[in-house]
Write a structure and sequence with these properties.
The structure is a single chain. The chain is mainly alpha-helical. The chain has one domain. Helix content is 84%, strand content 0%. The chain is built from 17 helices and no strands. Helix 6 runs parallel beside helix 9 and helix 11 runs parallel beside helix 14. The protein is globular.
């Protein structure tokens, strides 16, 4: 018995060495943990700096402009990772340049159209003037995020090697924190901070593109019309589904803006920004684990076992994190935001528990992506969006920000239930 205990770590190390997929995933998870820790820390730091510098009202407008950007961003998600990663995994190395080049061309064309449309909407007065000015600068990030960063990230996901992207994200996040501090020192306007976010996206895109070129010796991207048509047609339903998902994630703030002041919206958005950096962990965890433990698995019994373990692991991880963030909420809010943001504590304490259903939903969603169940995906997010919208208009007028959290929770639970139904049907549980 003692011998088994003593030699257990050695046996585990040998199993990891003999299984390259597990070794790569563990390496990715280590870097992912460091990247998430950095991003959460930087988000907390920058949110605190901007909240104190802008004040509650302007900070609310800043957050609302970011919300509108994230609602507009799905316009550029044609041929998303849900289509691109399985395509790369199931294709040969010789086809890689054509696949990535075609995806880039499609995404770039859509992004190049989305930006002037956004500017036109701002010019016609569809947003509050300050919000529109900030959004006009932030919209330029769409030219870099999906066409370049998204395409290279899909390739990195397909080979289970997220280290280059994560290191780049860590370095640029720290640089952005330094840039935000400098802009505060020179008393820059809110638009100046928006251009800082755009510069971050451009730098990440350039670094990842250079890494791809070094790895392959040359930039071998080219466009194939057949692939363009395939990506356009097969990706459309996924695109609509993911657009509904993104709208669902920001629906609470869009509806709240109709009923509360920008100051109150800023407090709510401050709590949600901290929480969303935490909720991003299961999404990135799912992207990291999917190629090795879901997409490449053909045996149904093994896939059932992998999904079950991933669900329990994610639920436990997000629960432990929610407990810690709940306990630390008062200290975080007082340290980061200071006076004028006392209402953030209660919102944050409730919001962090949304990470549990969000994490479970992200893992369950992988089975849909594996089997390319695009119509089920679209139906799921349409249903979640409808449930959240109905509850938002019912609860927000009566309960304010707590009503918004209720609508968000109901939407996550609805999406997770659809996932479980599909898994039970597809994997014959």
């Amino acid at each position: 018995m003692l011998g088994r205990i003593l030699f257990a770590p050695r046996r585990m190390l040998n199993r990891i060495k003999n299984n390259p997929d597990v070794a790569r995933v563990l390496s990715n998870l280590c870097w992912l943990g460091l990247e998430r820790f950095t991003q959460i820390g930087v988000a907390i730091l920058i949110s605190g700096v901007l909240a104190r510098y802008f004040g509650a009202d302007l900070f609310g407008k800043w957050q609302y402009a970011n919300t509108l950007l994230l609602v507009l961003a799905p316009l550029t998600w044609v041929c998303g990772a849900e289509i691109l990663v399985p395509t790369i995994v199931n294709s040969s190395e010789q086809q890689l340049g054509t696949i990535l080049g075609s995806a880039f061309a499609l995404r770039f064309a859509v992004s190049a159209l989305a930006i002037p449309l956004t500017w036109a909407g701002i010019a016609f007065g569809l947003t509050e003037p300050t919000v529109g000015t900030i959004l006009a600068a932030l919209a330029v990030t769409m030219l870099f995020r999906e066409p370049l960063i998204g395409v290279v990230n899909s390739w990195l996901q397909s080979i289970t090697y997220a280290k280059p992207q994560l290191i780049t994200s860590i370095v640029t996040a720290l640089a952005k924190a330094g840039g935000a501090w400098l802009l505060v020192r020179v008393a820059a306007s809110a638009v100046g901070f928006a251009w800082l976010w755009t510069a971050e996206a451009a730098i990440i895109a350039a670094v990842l593109l250079i890494y791809y070129r070094i790895r392959h010796g040359h930039l071998d991207w080219c466009v194939e019309r057949t692939l363009l048509r395939t990506f356009s047609s097969s990706g459309t339903v996924f695109w609509l589904g993911l657009s509904c998902m993104c709208l669902f994630l920001k629906l609470d703030r869009l509806v709240l803006e109709r009923y509360v002041s920008f100051s109150e919206l800023g407090r709510y958005a401050a709590a949600q920004q901290l929480n969303e950096n935490w909720i991003a962990l299961p999404l990135m965890l799912a992207q990291t684990l999917a190629p090795a433990f879901v997409y490449r698995v053909t045996d149904i019994s093994r896939l059932r076992r992998n999904i079950g373990r991933l669900l329990w692991m994610t639920a436990a991880l997000m629960s432990m994190g929610a407990i810690l963030l709940d306990l630390a909420a008062v200290w975080i809010v007082q340290t980061v935001f200071g006076p004028g943001f006392n209402g953030v504590v209660h919102i944050l304490r409730v919001a962090v528990w949304l990470s549990v259903p969000a994490g479970v939903e992200a893992i369950g969603n992988l089975v849909m992506l594996k089997y390319q169940a695009k119509f089920v995906l679209l139906a799921k997010w349409l249903l979640a969006l409808a449930v959240a919208l109905a509850l938002d208009f019912l609860l927000i007028p009566a309960f304010g920000t707590c009503g918004a959290l209720g609508g968000l929770a109901a939407g996550y639970i609805t999406a997770a239930m659809v996932n479980f139904y599909y898994i039970q049907h597809k994997l014959k549980l």
